[in-house]
Amino acid sequence: MSVAAADPDFATRLNAFDLAALVYEDGIAIDRLMVDFARGLAEAGRRVGGIAQLPPGPATEPGQVDLIDLMTGDIRPLKQRLGPGAASCTLDGSALAAASTGIRRAVAAQVDLVVISKFSKQEIAGGGFRAEFAAAVEAGLPVLTSVKRSQIGGWLAFTGGLGTLLDGRMDILVDWWAETERRRAKTRHRHVS
Q1: Per its UniProt record, what InterPro entries does this chain match (predicted)?
Q2: Rounded distance, CA 22 to CA 165, Å?
Q3: 75: helix, coil or strand?
Q4: pLDDT tens-place string over residues 36-62
């Protein structure tokens, strides 16, 4: 079920610009872009929360995926290290639970921006961070994620066609954020007047 279908008034409350997905292809350094953008906002005094996937570093083992909680700075490996030849699922359930908690903590803190690293096959299938996406959007917070070009159909089905798709470039991301802040400040000013 899409976010919009679960709540018929959702579309009237959501500014589609607040829900943004960076579109990427294999080989694009989307993780680096998201982490650099989030860190830049935090350095500029914005409250950024949620989770991002750290780009591989020189000491990163092949297949290693690390998530960073953008509010606490905690880094957790997403995959269990099961050793060579292991055939079972390598996703670490406790890391996923901690990441979920990090996203929900950001929503509860009403941060300026909630980052959720990726919308992927897990969310399309009804799992992953699907509930956390919905909670952030329903709280009226700007949400930034990334979606692989081949999975845009699943993203559009989940959002009910709402939201905005962005090319995975820093200049476009910076422009999106500037417009988001401008529009949200205007809305706050209207509510105060």
Answers
A1: DUF2478
A2: 6
A3: strand
A4: 999 999 999 999 999 999 887 666 666
Whole-number Å distance between alpha carbons of 28 and 18: 23
Contacts for 128-131: CB closer than 8 Å, 24+ residues apart: 129/99, 129/100, 129/103, 130/158, 131/100
Q: What is the pLDDT of residues 156-171, one digit of tens each?
A: 999 888 889 999 999 9
Number of domains, the chain: 1
Locate 31 and state its tokens: 């993780």
Which pTM does this prediction carry? 0.84
Cα–chain center distance at 161: 17
CATH value at residue 147? 3.40.50.300
89 band by pLDDT with thresholds 50, 70 and 90 = very low
